[in-house]
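<derive_structure_tokens>
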Amino acid sequence: MKTNYSAQRELVYDVLASTVTHPTAEWVWERCRESMPSISKATVYRNLAALVRSGRAIEVVGTFGSSHYDARVYPHNHMVCSVCGAVEDSFPSKELSLALEHEAQSRGYIGYGLTFTGVCEKCRAKQQDNLR
């Protein structure tokens, strides 16, 4: 999908692409304000949605329905912590990845992405510390 160029959209994309985390729109807005103080939250939300529609970003639904964004749009999976809400990339075995790709393509889909939910390593460690 073709979208019109705007300085705000490119700034939002550049901020998103500059991190390996999976930030929320609020985080992106805070970083955008560092170089464009007048940018509004609504502009950031609107441009994130446009980036997702155009295929330049992925939206990952996190804990309690919060949206996180990812500029890495190649097929990959995510893990969402049900305790702290962290979103991490997950790269399963090559065999599983090939099977998922084959399944998507055989049904006429152009990509795939799974979201695993559970407890991240940091939260598991905290839980173990609390048991001691």
